[in-house]
Amino acid sequence: MPLSRSARVALRVAAAVGFAVIYVPLLLVLVNSLSPDRSASWPPPGLTTRWWSAAWHSSGAREALWTSVRAGLGATAIALVLGTLVAFAVARYRFFGRDALSFVVVLPIALPGIVTGIALNSAFSTVLAPLGVGLGLFTVVVGHATFCVVIVFNNVVARLRRTSGSYEEAAADLGADTFRAFVDVTFPLVRSALLAGGLLAFALSFDEIVVTTFTAGPGVQTLPLWIFDNMTRPQQAPVVNVVAAVLVLLSVVPIYVAQRLSADTATASRV
Amino acid sequence: MALLTRTAGALHRRPRLRLALLLTAPLLWLAVLYLGSLAVLFVSAFWTTDSFTSEVVKVWSTDNFHELFTTPVFRQVVLRSVGVALAVTALCALLAFPVAFYTARVAKPSRRPLLVVAILTPLWASYLVKVYAWRLILSEGGLADWLLKPLGLSGPGFGLPATVLTLTYLWLPYMILPIHTALEQLPDNLLDASADLGARAGRTFRSVVLPMVLPSVAAGSVFTFSLSLGDYITVQIVGGKTQLIGNLVYANIELNLPMAAALATVPVVVIVLYLLAMRRTGALSSL
């Protein structure tokens, strides 16, 4: 479309404003973590790294971080197994209910978190409570794995659709049995998709708060739960600021690695 | 080793067995555990709670839904939630269009991939941190107040406008990305043809670009709408005393789980209806 010069300038300005709106809040979090003041008043009266060292020694934040890492690793491990299994079934076989299965995989992330959260919560309390198992880190892992499956599934299924099954057939023709063909041919083909999917699944689990609220037992506090708990406490505000700033900085990692590993799926898999 | 070879052979000859082995674990997890819990939740919406003991009474009744439709507070909150979701969607579409137009058609082609990454990156920043950022911006004496002070105004503070603003910020990338993709795939010769036929930029935009991009706007709106409708954390952080459906569900869980379940069906039903409406525009196939 032949755009006039003024239209191009207007679009350029609008886009610049748009990107500013997207990034200013994130930059504000970074600057605010250096503010000596406990309130969020702008501009900050000065800059200090005092709160960064205070946050480093905050046992609550450290413990929550460790809980989040364990929950994320557990959920990612389960999601990798389940997501890969479903992806192979959907991409390489035809069977009754295949479309329904792809739909069910997406459902946990498509429904509002609170619906998934209370559904799992009441299921856990009716099924696990009689067995003497209460809510704890285990139930958080189960909840997170449920909605992380779709991330791995999306990544692996996209890879499998782009690589035809003829590689495996060729391996079989050359005398490789089913396991051999998987180890030598199929696995190397999907390895980077698995890495990307696993990483993104971990990031999603690490960030989740709603399902976590309903599946975490007493005493189990992931990092988002800790932030939410301490956000309104003036005493803790500086440490929350630093934790928030760290999370902003860390958010570059999954996108960078995922882009490098499998450019085709990084966009689709957040959803 | 022989056993391994024999197993491999048996698996190779029986594709159905292979499929069964692939599907058993995921089906147990997703279909039994997850769909099972969902089903029980929706069935429990038809149970009631004994008002003296707070025990759940497992007798079929539609009391909860009756209460839902007749209590003015519930109706008000449902309408407000849908209104917020629609407002967020409209704002996202308005803001996303110029940005996507720039990244897809005005910016140098060599810069476009980087710009897409720039749109994507905030999606991976923590949800809670982004809401917290807006709490900082909108708090008293915060950035919003500071920016508006020269104009003699002050920021909106915490409340319904703050909620809409924050949700718009959270879901904006979900709207920019599909519009960007659609604009990028727009064939140049269509635009040339339109210009050859004498249309100016404005006419080409209305008659060629907009109809071809609309399905992508609809696709983006599926995210902005359903993510806003289910949210109850943002409104707790920046919404002041504002209540949305999610807050009502949350408030009822402890004392009246059947009522909470009935309330939780509302966003699900609305989202399904929205999806069905959007499917008619062909939006879902472009997801």
UniProtKB/TrEMBL annotation, chain A:
Record bears the keyword Iron: no
Main location: membrane
Membrane-topology annotation of the record: Multi-pass membrane protein
Transmembrane segments annotated in the record for this chain: 9-31, 71-91, 103-124, 130-153, 193-217, 237-257
Limits of the ABC transmembrane type-1 domain: 65-258
Protein name as catalogued: ABC transporter permease
Biological process terms in GO annotation: transmembrane transport
Protein family membership: Belongs to the binding-protein-dependent transport system permease family. CysTW subfamily.
Keywords annotated in UniProt: Cell membrane, Membrane, Transmembrane, Transmembrane helix, Transport
Stored PROSITE patterns: ABC_TM1
Gene Ontology cellular-component annotations: plasma membrane
Cell compartment(s), UniProt: Cell membrane
InterPro entries on file: Bact_Polyamine_Transport, MetI-like, MetI-like_sf
Lineage top rank: taxon: Bacteria
Pfam families for the chain: BPD_transp_1
Automatic annotation (TrEMBL), chain B:
ABC transmembrane type-1 domain segment(s): 78-278
Entry similarity comment: Belongs to the binding-protein-dependent transport system permease family. CysTW subfamily.
Membrane topology category: Multi-pass membrane protein
Membrane spanning residue stretches: 21-47, 77-102, 114-138, 158-177, 208-229, 257-277
Protein name: ABC transporter permease
Biological process annotations from GO: transmembrane transport
Entries under PANTHER family matching the protein: INNER MEMBRANE ABC TRANSPORTER PERMEASE PROTEIN YDCU-RELATED, INNER MEMBRANE ABC TRANSPORTER PERMEASE PROTEIN YDCU-RELATED-RELATED
Record-level GO cellular component terms: plasma membrane
InterPro entries named among the record's database cross-references: MetI-like, MetI-like_sf
Localization terms from the record: Cell membrane
Keywords: Cell membrane, Membrane, Transmembrane, Transmembrane helix, Transport
